Amino acid sequence: MWIWSQRRTRISLRISDSASVTCRYQRRPERPTPQPKIFLGRHFDARSEKTVAPLRRLLYLLGFDVLEGEAYNSRSIPEKVKSRIEQQPIYLAVITNAESHDWLIAEAAYALGKDKHIILLVEDRAKFNPTILGKDLEQIRFPVELVEKSFTKLLEEFRDLGVRF
Known about the structure:
This protein has 165 residues and is an alpha/beta fold. It folds into 2 domains: 1-30, no CATH class; 37-160, Rossmann fold. It has 4 helices and 8 strands. The chain has helices spanning 46-61, 77-86, 102-113, 151-160, and strands at 2-6, 9-15, 21-27, 37-41, 65-67, 90-95, 117-123, 139-142. It has a 5-stranded parallel β-sheet with strand order 5-4-6-7-8, with helices on both faces. Residues 1-11 have low confidence and may be disordered.
């Protein structure tokens, strides 16, 4: 018996004594996604998007389901964000050198109140005080527009949470 596998399909070939070939196709069961979902808090400007894009790609490649803002609906923005934060076990904030971080501080405080695991990626020039959340949260710092420099520490954080890759 010879078995050849490609992604989700398994093909089994059996050669009988009479040299005929029998093929059977089996669909592999879908693999459950072990990675948790992440809410990604960030500033919504072109510079922040440039910084966040490599991080978003890494998270998708690792198998995370990444949620950010939500498409338009009739609920208020705070209610939409709260709903999405409540659905995720991890809140990941990317804090760049924007002038105001009030919205990200509010999101992180809400996630903290909901017992979510909070990860703060903070750009070196960003003026951000994590003690305003009532807790001195550890930060993963990265050079300006080089979020990739934070990936090793971020992977270590995921490993400490028990996430397997």
